[in-house]
Amino acid sequence: MLDRWTNEWIKPPLASIAKGLAGRGVTPNQVTVVSFLVGMLALPLLANEAYGLALAVILINRLGDGLDGALARHTGQASDAGGFLDIGLDFLFYAAVVLGFALADPAANALAAALLLFAFIGTGSSFLAFAIMATKHDLARPHFEHKAFYYLHGLTEGTETILAFVIFCLWPAQFALLASIFAAACLMTTGTRLWGGFHTVRAREGGA
């Protein structure tokens, strides 16, 4: 929901950092892989209840997730292969963060973590399923011209997910409640994407 605004705010600083990285010969795929590996440190850190350090690596990962695209555009190296790698590793990272909280306190957090992972499957599958149909039917992407995949807007997008992870790390004792609330919002996003995607594709096909 907030991505269309936050993308505009962060583009200038990301472009500046990307320019510096390009001058050092860093490639977009290197940024993608390194930021993923750093982000995956959140799993053992969360499992051991090192929430401050976990938050730091989560934020580094999200910075890298924005930088790889900015660097690809700056160097003219944007590619479908890079977009595929980026989105695939993003989903693994998101799941790892939730798993980390489940391992930190299984008795209190496991059920809420399972619910949130269930919701993530909904948002992720509706995201990718519509991307496939959008490519097949050559649907325009008016607000996401810098994304590798077209997807429908929703209540929970990248910005909301980052904010949720930050809140989880700041108030870990409330993870079960907070994760359940965020899972409900993700399920609402899934529902609206499925509804909107179905009718968008059906209209393009000329269906009744």
Distinctive features:
208 residues; mainly alpha; single chain; 8 helices; flat
Structure, briefly:
The chain is mainly α and 208 residues long. It has eight helices and no strands.
Task: Explain what the structure shows.
By secondary structure, the chain is an all-alpha fold. 79% of the residues lie in helices and 0% in strands. It has 8 helices and no strands. The chain has helices spanning 3-23, 28-40, 42-47, 51-75, 80-104, 106-136, 158-170, 175-205. Residues 142-152 have low confidence and may be disordered.
**N-to-C span:** 29 Å
The overall average pLDDT, rounded, is 86
Assembly form of the protein = single chain
Number of strands: 0
Q: Topology as H/E string?
A: HHHHHHHH
Tell me the overall shape.
Answer: flat
Sheet with the most strands, sense and barrel status: none
What percent strand? under 5%
What class do helices, strands and sheet pairing give?
A: mainly alpha
What is the helix tally?
8
Share of residues in helices? over 70%
Report low-confidence residues grouped into runs of 5 or more: 142-152
- Rg on CA atoms, Å: 18 Å
What order do the helices and strands come in, and which of them pair?
Elements: H1 3-23, H2 28-40, H3 42-47, H4 51-75, H5 80-104, H6 106-136, H7 158-170, H8 175-205
Helix pairs in contact: 1-4, 2-4, 2-5, 4-5, 4-7, 5-6, 6-8, 7-8
